[in-house]
Design a protein that fits this description.
The chain has 173 residues and is an alpha+beta fold. It contains four helices and eight strands; from the N terminus they run αβββββαβαβαβ.
Length: 173
């Protein structure tokens, strides 16, 4: 009986989440983006032009979000000043922007401490192998990445188009 109720709820959700209407075209950001500010404690990422916030996003972070990333596998999101290194249209996530972590200081500290600093830190959407509708609600309430900054698939499409390689990104605690 319990299984049939769950199945009925899932099917109802799927029916109501499907629409026969076409989604309106996505609006493009009209102001140029010259820097990104991430506030980890607030779970906010701001695309900015100078000090003016053009658009803000609710983000998910690494599964262990408090504190700065130090080494591979710590599930922390880095803190500090970086740049967007490159766009990746063939990511295992729905698009991604690679962040230049680790920087020279972090590489030096890792060598001196005899540990791997980690890498492959991205701003990205949902995993490609999981249906987006399943992730939509989870994403808003749970930090789930291995240290990356995650947004929705619609949001990463907007960010991907608006942000250029070389854009500075500051990640604050």
């Amino acid at each position: 009986m319990k299984l049939s109720r769950i199945l009925l709820l899932v099917l109802t959700f799927l029916l109501f989440s499907c629409s026969s209407e076409k989604a309106p075209p996505k609006a493009m950001l009209t102001s140029p983006i010259d820097n990104i500010l991430v506030e980890k404690a607030k779970r906010q990422m701001h695309l900015r032009n100078g000090d003016v916030v053009v658009k803000s996003y609710r983000i998910s972070l690494g599964k262990n979000p408090v504190g700065a990333k130090v080494k591979s596998g710590d599930n922390k999101t880095p803190e500090g000043n970086y740049t967007i290194e490159r766009h990746n249209p063939k990511s295992i996530f729905h698009l991604s922007l690679r962040i230049s972590y680790p920087n020279a200081e972090q590489i030096k500290a890792a060598k001196e401490g005899n540990y791997e600093p980690g890498g492959d830190i991205m701003i990205h959407g949902y995993p490609n192998k999981i249906p987006a509708f399943l992730f939509k609600f989870w994403h808003k309430w749970k930090d789930w990445t291995a240290g990356c900054i995650a947004v929705t698939n619609d949001e990463i499409e907007e960010i991907y188009d608006a942000v250029k390689d070389g854009t500075p990104i500051t990640i604050k605690p």
